[in-house]
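tool=predict chain=A
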Amino acid sequence: MLDAAERLVAVKGFDSVSIRDVTGAAKANVAAVNYHFGSREGLLALVMTHILEPLCAERIALLEAAGKQPSVEDAVAAYINALAPAAARIGMDEPLFFRLAGRILCLPDEALPEAMEHARREVARRFMAPLAKELAADWAFFEAALAQSLVAEANSKNIAALMDRWVAFGVRGLGTSAADKPGDDSQGLLFAF
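tool=predict ok
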């Protein structure tokens, strides 16, 4: 049922998937959702957790691997390039994982299961702690645009090139914003620990 729910959410979104959709796709009884997951919300929370847990862990690992003072490119690349290894970690097809990650990233933190809300906030804290308040809005725009791109382009034959373009876009947009701030001596570094 989890696999069916993930495929359906990837295609239709969280709000459009019903218990009957999931049980029909999984060829299961409607009561099985309540028995195994407690409710539709319990099943969808598991979908979110299944994607966010490895993604958050991979993002933090890649950021830490970039060193104590990662460059803008290091930080943006860590954020984006965590997608493929996170998908591999749970053995999920990349387009499905990317699409689900995009759908989840579109959700407000409050819509996430509590543990994942904390995990996503920890990732945000790690990536954004050194950001000037002026750049927080730029990052929010970057993340939202990336999420929409993942939903729309996850089945692209050239997903690697798409991820490279997002790294370049993030570096240009966020690096320029940091370097252009008056009185800032960061020399274009967005994340300094």
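The chain has a mean pLDDT of 85. Residues 122 and 168 are 24 Å apart (CA to CA).
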